[in-house]
Design brief:
The chain is an alpha/beta fold. 48% of the residues lie in helices and 13% in strands. The strands form two sheets. It has a four-stranded parallel beta sheet with strand order 2-1-3-4, with helices on both faces. The chain has a four-stranded parallel beta sheet with strand order 6-5-7-8, sandwiched between helices. The longest helix has 17 residues. It is globular and about 45 Å long.
């Protein structure tokens, strides 16, 4: 199929990867079908829960992730995007298993923050309990001049985690207010912008009024990174 084909390792969750494909299309400058980025979506919702694997001793998702990568390699893809933040806890193992470059969603978020006019300083990071426990954003963004503020455990339990579950259950509208409240709390604590570091969270935030401070949508961030990779 050629080196210009993007592989998308999705299904985590299915709505988030479907939205990634939609945003990839809408953010690409194009006048006709042929101007768009050829892509193969591997959407497998059977991948074991990533947060449970990291925080609760659940089944290891890595064999499933590697199965998807192998399928995208066989399809002739030239790079891989993974519209799931928590799956990046297995980034090194996935990257070592393939010759294809994997676009890192945290690097994409950093580029998006710079585009939003926030090149450093304190930022808020919302995500799954697994993403925050693995320090995916905290470690990778520290070298770029960012300080990460994250929700308190009680805020995760009362607001963020239940709202992510609502999106996974296709009850997107119900997720808006708890997610917006968690973002407002981080902003009030000094965050110059809030990273929506779980690809379910932008779907919930989009279901209500826009927040009055910069938010970094990691679905859009990863889509823009893929567009840059494709040379569009």
């Amino acid at each position: 199929m050629g080196e210009g084909v993007l592989g998308v390792l999705g299904g985590m969750g299915p709505l988030a990867s479907a939205e990634f494909m939609r945003r990839l299309t809408l953010l690409t400058t194009a006048e006709r079908d042929q101007d768009h980025i050829p892509a193969v979506l591997w959407s497998d919702p059977r991948v074991p829960d990533r947060t449970a694997a990291r925080t609760g001793g659940g089944p290891d998702p890595l064999p499933w992730l590697l199965r998807g990568i192998s399928g995208l390699e066989a399809a002739g893809c030239g790079a891989i995007a993974i519209p799931c933040n928590t799956a990046h806890g297995w980034f090194d193992a996935m990257q070592s298993a393939t010759r294809l470059p994997i676009l890192h969603i945290v690097d994409a978020a950093a580029e998006e923050l710079a585009r939003l006019g926030v090149p450093g300083g304190p930022i808020g990071v919302m995500g799954t309990a697994g993403t925050l426990a693995m320090n995916l954003y905290q470690q990778r963004l520290q070298g770029r001049g960012y300080t990460c503020l994250v929700p308190e455990p009680a805020e995760m339990q009362a607001l963020v985690t239940p709202a992510i579950a609502e999106v996974k259950a296709n009850r997107v509208t119900a997720a808006y207010e708890p997610l917006a409240e968690a973002a407002r709390i981080l902003h009030h604590r000094g965050a110059r912008a809030v990273v929506l570091g779980c690809t379910e969270i932008p779907l919930g935030i989009a279901a209500g009024p826009a927040l009055p401070f910069p938010v970094c949508d990691t679905i859009d961030a990863l889509a823009r990174a893929a567009i840059r990779w494709a040379g569009r």
